[in-house]
Amino acid sequence: MEKAKISAIQLVVILYIFILGTTVIFPLAADADQAAWISILLGMVLGLPLLLIYHFLYKMYPNLVLTEYSKEILGKYLGTAVGILYVVYFLYGAARDVRDAMDLAPLFLHGTPVSVIGIMFLLPILYGLFLGIEVLLRTGEIFIVYIVSTGILMIFFIFISDIFQYENLLPVLEPGWKKIVGTALKQTWMAPFGEVVCFTMIFAYLNKPKLQLKASFMGYIIGGLSLTFFHFLTIAVLGADSRGTSISPFLRMVQKIEVAEIIQRLDALFMIWLLVNDFFKVAIFMYAAVIGGATLFKVSKNVLILPFGAIVFFTSIFFADSYITHMAQGDFALAYIYPIFALGIPFLLCIVVFIRKKSKK
User: Can you spell out the DSSP letters for 144-207?
Assistant: First the structure.
């Protein structure tokens, strides 16, 4: 761990940005059609117990990160193996989000090689990792003003542009509860809410540990409700079918904004908004991986930044040969891999800690 301290407000801000991340860009929960926003909301509710699990572990080991207290709980060898798995998981999460930026940016940067986009996107993130978690989170405090104000501006323009079509949301429950709940369990529960497990690598830096649970819930709920509302808007503006077949329904929605033939073509402004969200999400994933590796192998985090950056870069390019493959891999990971890291292992750690406490008593 590095010597750093963060505030509860910074934790709220970065959690909010992290949850919006890339999941605001793509047609999340498209299988639920016009009820996708309900699946996202349900996924947020299902993810709330995860915060309690992470809080329990943080309360037991307030000065350690996940890769450290896994060794305290499971023993040196098994705990180290678990820690290595988490480092790989964090790197994979970062690579997926870098790939999201690679798939998104060519919509504007026509003809630019995706490798160049990936390098230019990663370089400032790697520099931020060298500077440390305090600098990253202070930067987040600066950019949250832009993120919130731009989001409010977008909502205002959507309603005065008269492109919000309430009938696109009806009938609300036509997909049926089976599909709505199934989509929440397969997708939205883990993306983005299960990915919050990354913050088990950051909680130890809080300057006021007593505020950890309150700050976590605040950032989580505000972010979750904002994400739900943005997808609610895309369904209302585009319709479920058009939203589900679009690479970036959010941008398509923004492109429809037109006020008095003066305010239009705002998609470039919101492209920056989306990339800023993605920047911080990748930064948190990579920071979790770097600190995890540093605590496991007893080296400085700065030694791992460039090698880990290279791993993320090449994984983002070569792990999936197309957008369709990238999304298919994501669906598989969300259903079968992410729950192991977000719920399975932390819950197992809680059980072991609880049994040890009882046996000591």
Answer: HHHHHHHHHHHHHHHHHTT---GGGG-STTTT-HHHHHHHIIIIITTTTGGGGGGGGGTGGGBS
pLDDT tens readout for residues 172-189: 999 999 999 999 999 999
What was the pLDDT predicted at 313? Answer: 96
- At 28 the three-state DSSP class reads coil
**Angstrom distance (rounded) from CA 117 to CA 100:** 11
Query: Per this entry, what is the length of the chain?
Result: 361
SS (H, E, C) 210-252: HHHHHHHHHHHHHHHHHHHHHHHHHHHHHCHHHHHHCCCHHHH
Domains of the chain listed by start with CATH number:
8-360 (1.10.4160.10)
Cα 8 to chain centroid distance, Å, stands at: 19
pLDDT per residue as tens digits for the range 199-240: 999 999 999 999 999 999 999 999 999 999 999 999 999 999
What does the DSSP 8-state code read for residue 107? G
Nearest to 135 by CA among 145, 147, 127: 127
- The answer to whether 12 and 219 have CB atoms below 8 angstroms apart is yes
